[in-house]
Amino acid sequence: MGASYKGRFAPSPTGPLHAGSLVAALASWLDARARGGQWLVRMEDVDLPRCVPGADQRILQQLADCGLIPDEPPVWQSQRSALYQQALDALIQHGLAYPCACSRKDIEQALLAQGLNKARHGELVYPGTCRTGLHGKEGRAWRFATEDFGSSAIHPIHTHIAKGEASIAHSVTWTDRRLGPQTQDVAAEVGDFVLKRADGLFAYQLAVVVDDAAQGITHIVRGEDLADNTARQILLQRALGYRTPEYLHTELVLAADRQKLSKQNGAQALDTSSPEAVLGALTLAANRLGLTDSGTRDNRGIALAAWVEQWRATLQSQNT
Question: Which UniProt keywords apply (predicted)?
């Protein structure tokens, strides 16, 4: 089990770690250690305008202060654009990506014309305006063709789709280790999603899928706020012939307004200035994950080892 397990923590360097991001980091580290596997760190800085200079190095230092050391040197998405372009080129070649000239305002107007004006999680469901061509406009972005995925002319790029499943290939069912069975019809609920933005930057959905495959990630442990992205990522994995990892989405840490704790709503930077502060932060994160701190208050290493054993025991109980 251990030799084949590879997990990762992939923060966006838009600021330092806070209590919520430490929960995800600790959970992914514990899952890897409890299974005797490898744990990697990847800086998801593909959206460069949102990144804060120096935040990546501060995050790495915070992780090190907490005893969460990756088994391989960290990688940065901003240095991996060639990999993303290769994947996009493959999708274009196989008719699974197309250029789009729509602005957000264009999408809003098209939805209003159809009597549909409700945003989904703040994200507009793309109506497919450019699916049949640019109609004289200049393409600025690239989108994944969810409607065409699994069409009758299935290319070998996704021959794993069983006969008879083609018509529902864009409806994804998967099982989360915590949340249980999940289903999403990506074409109906999300629409054709962006792979490369109008400003030339690659979108998160494509970058994360390519990186997970390139790094051999077998298990993904991350916050529940990212669960809604999973179906889109599974579609891309299928289209590109990648293996789908196992997923575990952890409970979120909420701010006073009951929204996800984040840098946007004033989450305080994680204090790792002293051993006491580190152990306190780790204990809070472990408690959020359902782990106890009995007998682990004196030493970070002892605490982490105890939590690894608790996590391993939980895994064993789930497998019996």
Answer: Aminoacyl-tRNA synthetase, ATP-binding, Ligase, Metal-binding, Nucleotide-binding, Protein biosynthesis, Zinc
The reply, when asked if residue 317 is annotated as ligand binding, is no
pTM above 0.85, yes or no: yes
Does 157 have pLDDT greater than 60? no
Same domain? For 143 and 178 the reply is yes
Q: Read off the tokens for 258.
A: 């009951």
The response to whether 87 counts as a known ligand-binding position is no
Of 205, 201, 202, which Cα lies nearest the Cα of 233? 205
| Count of C-beta atoms within a 10 Å radius of residue 242 | 18
Domain count, the chain: 2
Q: Are residues 142 and 98 in the same domain?
A: yes
Residue 136 has pLDDT above 80, yes or no: no
Averaged pLDDT, 193-204: 96
For residue 148, give its domain range.
81-204
Q: Count CB neighbours of 4 within 10 A.
A: 12
Does 8 show up as a binding residue in the annotation? yes
Residue 1 lies inside a defined structural domain of this protein: no
Q: Is 100 annotated as a binding residue?
A: yes
